[in-house]
Amino acid sequence: MNAKKLVGLSIGVVFLLGLLMGPSALAADMPYGLKAGMPYKGTKLTFLVHNAAQSQAQAKRVGEFTELTGIEVEFLMVPYPSLREKITADAVAGTGAIDLYCFLDGWGPSMTGFLTPLNDFLKRDGIDLSEKLPPAYIKGGTYDGTTFGIPTRGHPQLLLYRKDLFEQAGVAVPKTWKELIAAGKAIKEKTGRDGIAMYYGKGNAAQNLFLWNAFLKSGGASIFDDKMMPAFNSPAGIEATQYYVDLLLKYGVASPGSKFFKEYEASQAVAQDKAAMVIVWWWHFGVLTNPEKAQAVVAENMGFAPVPAWEGKGQATLALSMPVGINQASKNKEAAWEFLKWLTNPDLEKANFLDKSDPKTRTIVVVQKKNLVDPEINKVSNGMHKAAAASLEVSDTFPMLPEWPEVAAAIEVAISNIAGGADTKTEMDKAAKEVTAIMKRSGY
């Protein structure tokens, strides 16, 4: 069936049943737990969100929500770099001009003062997020046991690799870091490309911690101890950090530019046929398979796989999500909750994914458990969403703390310095000293 008609058809069925069987049947059959009888008809909501393809796809279908509820929704789309500034400015003004915000999970702890707790809404409507979402995505919208947002956008990490270069080098897709190093060396020797593009450079919101976290957690180390004091400079933390940078410094399988690369530059090294692998958020796969954004030989030969594990120890990945929450100052909280239920329903997500008719609204993003393993979705994506589901089983978020941006800034400088040749223990101890001061200042 045409994906564009999936949600509309279900809506039509609901209303037809209502007409034939009366108001009680309509109340029982309203989809997504929406209230029957249009109690908020005529309400106009505003939703501040970044202008991603997924947001534009949601906006194209919002008329379906209005048909169900009588509630109108205006999408206020802004570029991602200005999203936090726009949210903060509106929240500080306190006018309630904007009803809902889409925000990055890491921003949440500093925004709880102007977000509406959702626990009572969830309980009242019998919604169990653990049945709908992977744990890391739930954690991304939850602070101190209170849910402040439900994600409609999320990104797991995957290993993206050149299938043709692996074939030329005669190596298998790596399942461990040791295998990745061996594959990278063989690829460099037999194809002339760098084994993997890493990103150790500082700046751009501490992106050099994304993969550092995978090494740290898979090696059994952690960022904080149980007293919320630094643990990343423990012996296990030092070992993990050294292993992470040694892909460049010792084993030579990382692109030389990795010392300065940020995530985008690492992905571009693969796109430009200079490196065979990169570990990034899954949305990069859409870039690397697009012949308008990557060289043709790259776009035709990209594959994906789970992030490698630390041999004999474990596997870990980072997850990122963008929850949607209700402004505490909104005068339309009940109507906003109705919209949030509709926005986070799996039918909408699936319809948006399957609709490839408009390049501006094409998206690979799904966050719902059922959609990650959905056969139709995985047929279209060649199983990438099942791979993402596996990644999310071992995923966590960065610590959900108001102090995290400061903490991350200290560690990212240390990582950059180490990749530049500085002593690992010295740099991590220095960062730990800074982080200790940050945490003690906050009362830990």
Explained architecture:
There is one protein chain. With 444 residues, this protein is α/β, with parallel strands linked by helices. It folds into two domains: 3-152 and 322-389, D-Maltodextrin-Binding Protein, domain 2, CATH 3.40.190.10; 157-318 and 403-441, D-Maltodextrin-Binding Protein, domain 2 (3-Layer(aba) Sandwich). The protein is 46% helix and 12% strand. It is built from 22 helices and twelve strands. The protein has helices at 6-21, 23-29, 53-60, 62-69, 83-93, 119-124, 129-132, 135-139, 163-169, 177-191, 209-218, 235-249, 263-271, 284-288, 296-299, 333-343, 346-354, 369-372, 375-380, 384-393, 404-419, 424-441, and strands at residues 44-50, 72-78, 100-102, 142-143, 146-147, 150-155, 157-162, 277-281, 302-305, 317-318, 320-326, 395-396. The chain has a five-stranded mixed beta sheet with strand order 2-1-3-11-6, sandwiched between helices. A three-stranded antiparallel beta sheet has the order 8-7-9. A hairpin with a 2-residue loop joins β4 (142-143) and β5. It is globular.
